[in-house]
């Protein structure tokens, strides 16, 4: 769990939702009630669909963007400013040349009441996302994301957070998506890490 102060003075932090803690349970309930503006729902899936998918996939780590204390359900509802998933799964193969050294940021958003305060940029850049990636995907040296070509506002946020266009464009149900990436700065692993090999369990 890491904090960083935004230009507006708010201090967001990222809280893993795959952990068995009271705070995670309160935040899970809060993000499941999130709604986005009608024009934004075409670009990102909400946790009502993406959180169960993350729970079912060991390569995915869901997290909440949190601003403020989470003492109870009301506090969680106020503090849960957004959501995202770190994914180290097979989907990276079509996005980057070295998928074994990357992690994908997906299902990422900030709720309307917290937009425009620098929360989204702070939460997807160093040190917040990098420290979370060091926990969730310690093999990763690169953060990757996809942004819809019809969503220039999101692209500007990601560029301000240090992501650059890789030149790759992929197709999706909502239209073409630019692939963007940036190096991860975890500070703990100066040499590139390799993803551990997965072994199949015998039947």
UniProtKB/TrEMBL annotation:
Residues 19-185 form the N-acetyltransferase domain. Residues 194-203 have a biased composition (Basic and acidic residues). It comes from the Bacteria. Residues 168-203 are annotated as: Disordered. PROSITE patterns: GNAT. This is GNAT family N-acetyltransferase. It comes from Nocardiopsis changdeensis.
């Amino acid at each position: 769990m890491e904090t960083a102060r935004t230009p507006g003075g708010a201090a967001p932090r990222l809280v893993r939702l795959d952990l068995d803690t009271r705070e995670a349970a309160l935040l899970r309930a809060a993000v499941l009630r999130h709604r986005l503006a009608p024009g934004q729902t075409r670009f990102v899936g909400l946790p009502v669909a993406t959180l169960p998918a993350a729970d079912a996939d060991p390569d995915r780590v869901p997290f909440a963007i949190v601003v403020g204390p989470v003492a109870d359900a009301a506090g969680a509802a106020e503090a849960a400013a957004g959501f995202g998933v770190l994914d180290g799964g097979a989907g990276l193969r079509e996005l980057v040349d070295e998928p074994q050294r990357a992690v994908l940021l997906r299902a990422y958003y900030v709720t309307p009441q917290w937009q425009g305060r620098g929360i989204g940029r702070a939460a997807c850049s160093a040190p917040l996302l990098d420290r979370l990636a060091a926990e969730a995907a310690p093999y990763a040296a690169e953060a990757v994301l996809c942004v819809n070509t019809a969503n220039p506002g999101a692209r500007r946020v990601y560029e301000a957070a240090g992501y650059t266009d890789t030149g790759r464009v992929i197709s999706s149900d909502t239209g073409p998506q630019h692939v963007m990436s940036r190096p991860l700065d975890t500070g703990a692993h100066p040499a590139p890490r390799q993803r551990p090999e997965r072994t199949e369990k015998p039947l």
